[in-house]
Amino acid sequence: MREVAVIGIGQTPVSEHWEKSLRELAGEAVFAAMIDGHRESVDGLFVGNMLSGSLIRQENLGAMIADWVGLRHTEAVKVEAACGSGAAALRAAILAVASGAMDSAIAVGVEKMTETKGVETTAALAAAADADYEAAQGLSFVAINALIMQRYLYEYGWKHTDFAPFSINSHANAVHNPYARLQEPISERSYQKARMIASPINLLDASPIADGAAAVLITPAGDLRRNGRPLIQIAASASATDTLAVHDRPDPLWLTAAEKSVKKAYAQAGVEPQDIDFFELHDAFSIMAALSLEACGFAERGQAPRLAQENQISLHGRIPICTMGGLKARGHPVGATGLYQVVEVVQQLRGEAGANQVDGAKIGMAQNIGGSGATVFTHILRVM
Prior knowledge:
- This protein is of the alpha/beta class.
- It has helices spanning 22-36, 52-55, 61-68, 85-99, 118-125, 141-156, 164-174, 188-193, 256-269, 286-295, 304-309, 326-330, 334-350, and strands at residues 4-11, 44-48, 75-79, 105-111, 196-198, 201-202, 212-220, 232-241, 278-280, 363-370, 375-383.
- A hairpin with a 2-residue loop joins strand 5 and strand 6 (201-202).
């Protein structure tokens, strides 16, 4: 297998894009990545998306977006893995280029979530849960995560307010991210006073839905020459699954798919948790931030909130997370999220993160989760 590198990145602001269609959003991200990578064509286009069929009644996104961006006749497909669709599309692109089947590929994640009624969007998102045994019983994704968080608080003795630093950190980082949806800081007081959604999850525990698109252009690393900026290698790409329904897992407080995915990624990259300079994790809800840190080896079981309380997850901490705002404050356009994460990793490794720059960052990790931990993708990138 050939080594693969990122040569171009692109993203749109995460927002409510009433004036733009799904194809226009995807096109903006693709064009930005191709301009950044100095390419006019690619061999393949992989589209990460979860909700186009249910919310905007449009499928066959590969052909639609390829045509829109001037890549007509190029091989193009949609890839779906719930909220992990963006990273799934990137992994498909990586496998195509690494295997030699393609010499260049773009992965673009795109989602339009804000033009339908809230009840419709919530119902569509619930399709990533077990339709028979979770969704049919009235469980939304907020409710499923609330049950997990209730159990975590009971099992390990934490209080709900102990999770405030996760959200505070994400919002503090989003202030300096022009692409983030929620570019304002929050305080512990505002966290405590936030409206409850599904106890114990309140409004400031949950990421906002949004519209947006992000894209990554990749080629074989051996074909590249330095052009004045760092070359970014994809050192690892790994995936694993778990049961679709949370109640089918022996331990609902352990993200087994995250653990297995990250262990494969560590082995591929030849690194350990202590070698990771920053981590773009999937903080769709604050409880998921804690479970991800534990599954990936950054905290002992039940102790992730301590990392946050001790400020070890900040930009200057031991393991910075959500360095551009994460899902919580950048926003969570589900099919695009995994590619926003990787775009942000590349920004950090290139030294292009501005006020959010992690000093000396050489190795970054992104982890994208589909469902309530059912499908997990882990990517590790490093400066070559």
